[in-house]
Amino acid sequence: MAVKTAGTRLEERWRDILTLHAHTMCEIDRALHPHGLGASDFEVLDILATAAPEVGDQCRVQNLVGRVHLSQSALSRLIGRLEKEGLVERSVCAEDRRGVWVALTDKGRALYAEVLPLQRAVLERMLAERAG
Hints:
By secondary structure, this protein is mainly alpha-helical. The protein has helices at residues 6-32, 39-51, 61-65, 72-84, 106-131; strands at 59-60, 88-92, 100-104. Strands 1-3-2 form a three-stranded antiparallel β-sheet. Helix 1 packs antiparallel against helix 5 (106-131). The longest helix is centred in the first third of the chain and has 27 residues, at 6-32.
């Protein structure tokens, strides 16, 4: 039987984290699919809802880039899709024409509120399984 080194144990822990993340994202996708959302869609809505909690509050797209696990181009496509579905709206930053603002619409806030308990239930279940 091979002796586990500190490096081997560290690598096993890292793989466990990646596996938990992948399984959790799949479960969130499954839970939100009937509502027309995926895990990444929810992640953006969640950040917008918490970063810009009042109706009309906006968040710069650039600020989202570092907080979601997507490339800038994938994030732009996702925001475009959410905008097409009427869940967010984009506008150009008046102070910096290169900057783009994004905000939840009323429809986006309503859908977010509807699916938030579903996403949180998946997190609770998946993280409880991990701890158990």
